[in-house]
From TrEMBL:
GO terms for cellular component: chloroplast. Residues 3-90 form the D-alanine--D-alanine ligase N-terminal domain. This is D-alanine--D-alanine ligase N-terminal domain-containing protein. It comes from the Eukaryota. GO terms for molecular function: D-alanine-D-alanine ligase activity.
């Protein structure tokens, strides 16, 4: 057992292409050129499922910090749950219920 902690960073673009970022990539980009630099210097995972396969052998726990539909509607959580990859945050079912705010309000009676 190692006491070493490595933080692996991934970026998912609006087209759901996911890239593993090195620390150099992470710190050398600005919001305005981020996608451009990634497209020129990195290869994305073939699919969200390919990312999950990679995570199964690369991480002990996932901290999903994905804004927008894919990250908030439960789909990424569902993939992690199906492969039994531990993650921090709400379950896929809870994310699905909370994603549509009107339905979530009806669910809790607000």
């Amino acid at each position: 057992r190692s006491d070493k902690v490595d933080v692996l960073t991934y970026y998912m673009d609006p087209k759901l292409r996911t890239y593993q970022l090195s620390n150099t990539q992470l710190y050398s980009n600005t919001p305005s050129d981020f996608d451009f630099k990634l497209l020129c210097h990195s290869e994305p995972f073939d699919s969200p499922e390919a990312l999950v396969e990679h995570l199964k052998t690369s991480v002990d726990i996932v901290f999903p910090m994905v804004h927008g539909e894919w990250g908030e509607d439960g789909r990424i959580q569902e993939l992690l749950e199906l492969e039994e990859i531990p993650f921090v945050g709400s379950s896929a079912a809870t994310c699905k219920k909370a994603f549509h705010k009107f339905n979530a309000c009806q669910e809790i009676g607000a």
